């Protein structure tokens, strides 16, 4: 047990939490923005995957990681717009359209990579590089804290800055008010002159862009290449974090960070004498427990409201 | 709304259809026009894994070129729900003489299909069908199925033996003070655990302690296709003092080579010669050797034997070190990193396994 404690308190573990949580955080904020705009973005997984693929390919061929990241994010934002268009213009069910988007992304990325590189596995044969890490002169030399914070990828910093940024956007800006109003009750929003569709399109583009940044981190930060289906369900875990976090920025932040910590813990504990099947269930078991708690709390709150109303 | 939902469903369905039907190809050849025996390789996954399936494909491609076969490949993708219908379709189409497939996950499909198509031949690699016919499959005792399995535990044994000799001899530059080594298997299934069991036995026989072998499975949604998680696990192992990490996890292993570069440590490759398949020189340099599992060679040999009508159907063929189906890469890079004394010791250990004087434990 003491070795478990050693692991949890080590700087290597804390640094790993930040790394592992990065894609969860960004994708979860993407899911949150879409959800608050009134359109569920089930396509997070596909948007991440497309961005990861585009990023690595563009960076590999242009030689510029910045160009790769920008193109990756742009493609994911376009897919967000596509989802919005399917929902708003054609009246498609957002869940089903999102699933279709994920299927499309899985097939299209593999096909694109095969077309360019004649490799069905991924872009590991293409040198594409990673986004820069942030060195912190001064902090670097502080024990533990320096090891944890220094040398993290730029995108990790952006992921953590995204929490206050999204909170500010939601509660301090005109766009945020409009977004939430549109998501709550589009008819009411329209009646006071808010351009409902335009707000929803913008929200879904932003949602896709955030998922795109998460995807770019996978192929240009975590590792330096794209592998087919490399998102490996991260988009869906992020979606769970959106609901677990009660659709509020800081709640989502904590939920996504919790999932990251659970996975990092599973990684660090894996080499100890704990059955591997048990360890690899940690993130999933935690997801289920957390969702059950969320549902239970909501039910209780719901019951309370009914009682209050009947009185 | 209702209308929109069904439209979207149709789109999703069409996408799924294109995804799985894409590799079917244009085949209207009811009989072999060229008179060549036709092999159809059905892959429950995809090519491009740089190891297992790619090796099978290479071997059969060579058989096509050298031995006068016709080869067709069907990739079923990673969605398991499409595997069973995929195999049924592949077997029902009369465009093949030999259907080749691999991994333990397809044994039941082959066991079901072989009795339904008694005039076709089936080759199953890396797992045996249930030849007894007592468990619901193989109602004809699978007398038209040739299975070949590999003694990957022997390859694992050599990896473990070499790993211990390298750390005990302080031969790895930059990692002289470290005693531990890591193994990163994809999932806990017998055929993968067979590598691990062999590794531990070899490590012990070379004089190491089992507690110095760190083992961690990738697991999760894509155990053989999640390089980010592979990198995280490898980084953790190097952090816990592993001098080298041996990934046995397909594409997840690509993360290991990256983390080895940043940690300044070492790796072993698996299945294929990964010094050759990697492109980045810094990553190549971390690969001491690769433990080969020559699926392709075994299939090529099967093709040779089948031409001579000497391939044994209705039975399992188990091949290992003695058949050159399992082995390690002995190239210049290996010679540069591994001292002469260790290389000789490793060769001797391999000879002992080959001659049978050392029996390697197995997870199968």
UniProtKB/TrEMBL annotation, chain A:
Entry keywords, A to Z: Cell membrane, Membrane, Transmembrane, Transmembrane helix
Domain of life: Bacteria
Entry's transmembrane regions: 67-88, 95-117, 154-171, 201-225, 231-247, 252-272, 278-296
Subcellular location: Cell membrane
Principal localisation: membrane
Membrane topology of the entry: Multi-pass membrane protein
Gene Ontology CC, one term: plasma membrane
Alphabetical list of InterPro entries matching this protein: ABC_transp_permease (IPR001851)
GO-annotated molecular function: transmembrane transporter activity
Protein name: ABC transporter permease
Provenance organism: Streptomyces spongiae
From TrEMBL, chain B:
Domain of life assignment: Bacteria
GO CC, alphabetical: plasma membrane
UniProt keyword tRNA processing present: no
Location in or out of the cell: Cell membrane
Family as reported in the entry's similarity comment: Belongs to the BMP lipoprotein family.
PANTHER family the record matches: ABC TRANSPORTER GUANOSINE-BINDING PROTEIN NUPN, TRANSCRIPTIONAL ACTIVATOR PROTEIN MED
The protein's name in its UniProt record: BMP family ABC transporter substrate-binding protein
The species this protein was found in: Streptomyces spongiae
Organism lineage: Bacteria, Bacillati, Actinomycetota, Actinomycetes, Kitasatosporales
